[in-house]
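Notes from the 1:1 (GR / supervisor)

We went over the backlog. Supervisor wanted to see one worked example end to end before approving the batch request, so GR pasted a single chain during the call. The sequence is below; no edits were made to it. Supervisor asked that the structure be written out right there so they could see what the output format looks like.
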Amino acid sequence: MGEDGRVSAFVLALMLGLLALAGLSLDGGLALASKVRAGGQAESAARAGAQALDLTAYRATGEVRLDPARARDLAQRYLSAVGATGAVQVAGDTVTVQVTTTYRTQLLSLIGIDDIHAHGSGAAHPQRGVTAVEP
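Structure output shown during the call:
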C-alpha cells in the first residue's frame, strides 16, 4: 500500500510529455506551412508588381522599367486578394514584398503559446521577351 498514487503521477507526467510532443509536432508543422505560404504570397505579389511596366518609356526607348506607383498598387492588390498583409517596396527595377502572418496554435496554447509569427519575403523584376522554349 506504500506505492499508492505513484503510478498515476508517472502516467500524468508521461501524458503531459506526449501532449507537449504532439503540440510541437502539430503546431510546428502548421507554423512551417504558414511560413511557406507567406513566402509564396510574397513572391507572387512581387511578380504581380513586376508586371507594372512604364509603357511610355518602353515605347519611346525600348527600356524595360517599372512604374513604381502601379507596381506597389498591383502588389498590394494581390496581397489583399489572398487575404495577406505586407510591406511593398519598389527600388529601381525590383519589387520587394515582405509578408507577416500569425498562426494561432491549437495544442501549444495549452502551455501558454497562443500564436506563432511567420515571415516571408519575395522579390521580382521585369523580364524582356519570351522565356519558354517552343518545340
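Supervisor's comment: Helices lie at 6-49, 55-61, 68-82.
Batch request approved.
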